[in-house]
Design brief:
Layout: H1 3-8, E1 10-14, H2 19-30, E2 34-39, H3 42-56, E3 63-67, H4 68-74, E4 77-80, H5 87-93, H6 95-98, E5 102-105, E6 110-113, E7 116-119, H7 127-134, E8 139-142, H8 149-153, E9 162-168, H9 171-182, E10 187-193, H10 198-215
Parallel strand pairs: 1-2, 1-4, 2-3, 4-5, 5-8, 9-10
Antiparallel strand pairs: 6-7, 8-9
């Protein structure tokens, strides 16, 4: 997707009232993109959309809210940023609405105990692979796993210095998602391999959380030696 095409697209965010989805929606709205927030509760989504539009300083028509089915229907690209324990149920319920669309899974299956965060096993290999199995008619990619929700929500940070690894089996779809990453100032979308490699990318989030707790920061990743 070229930049003009991206500018005309609608970005749906399932889980847009949660920290990660809300933060990405804010940055995309601030970059001038059209965003629709999805939630189980359409009223809650509309309230979050109005708050985000005000925070981003954009017209409230640029950021709208809907229930999850309405969000999936209205969007051209759909980010999945929901809790892991509801991932399969939600995607199964939206199979028809998401058919033919680019789906961006950023879910990290993780558990927490006294020793800290750890990656959970997923029968399909990763959350993204589960999404692909549940959405056979969608163009499933994986991306945005390592972006700090705290940093995203803070617009006093004008540029976010990190790379977003984008994985998928559809080259055109991963190129469009990389362009969506590039729309956030300072962020660079980097192709990270086939969808079968999403498991280790999702699991790396546990390491970053451990780093952030130890050093009291909001670390991301950068890939070296790229042009």
């Amino acid at each position: 997707m070229t930049e003009p095409e991206l500018a005309k697209a609608t970005i749906g965010v399932l889980g847009g009232t949660g920290p990660q989805g809300r933060g990405l929606a804010l940055r995309w709205a601030a970059a001038g993109l059209r965003v629709v927030i999805g939630s189980r509760d359409a009223t809650r989504a509309a309230t979050a959309a109005a708050e985000l539009a005000d925070q981003a300083g954009v017209d409230d028509r640029q950021v709208s809210g809907a229930d999850n089915a309405g969000c999936a229907t209205a969007a051209d690209l759909v980010l999945v940023a929901v809790p892991w324990d509801g991932h399969d149920t939600l995607l199964t319920s939206l199979r028809a609405e998401l058919a033919g669309k680019i789906v961006i899974d950023c879910v990290n299956p993780m558990g927490f105990d006294k020793q800290g965060p750890f990656a959970l096993p997923v029968a399909e290999g990763s959350a993204a692979q589960q999404a692909a199995a549940l959405l056979p008619d969608s163009r499933v990619t994986a991306a945005f796993h390592h972006v700090s929700a705290v940093t995203l929500a803070d617009l006093t940070v004008p540029e976010i210095n990190l790379d977003v690894l984008v994985l998928g089996d559809d080259r055109e779809a991963t190129d469009q998602v990389r362009a969506l990453a590039d729309a956030i100032p300072g962020v660079r979308g980097v192709f990270g391999g086939r969808l079968r490699n999403a498991g280790q990318v999702e699991a790396l989030t546990a390491n970053l959380i451990a780093i952030n707790r130890r050093y009291k920061t909001h670390a991301g990743i950068r890939v070296t030696d790229l042009p």
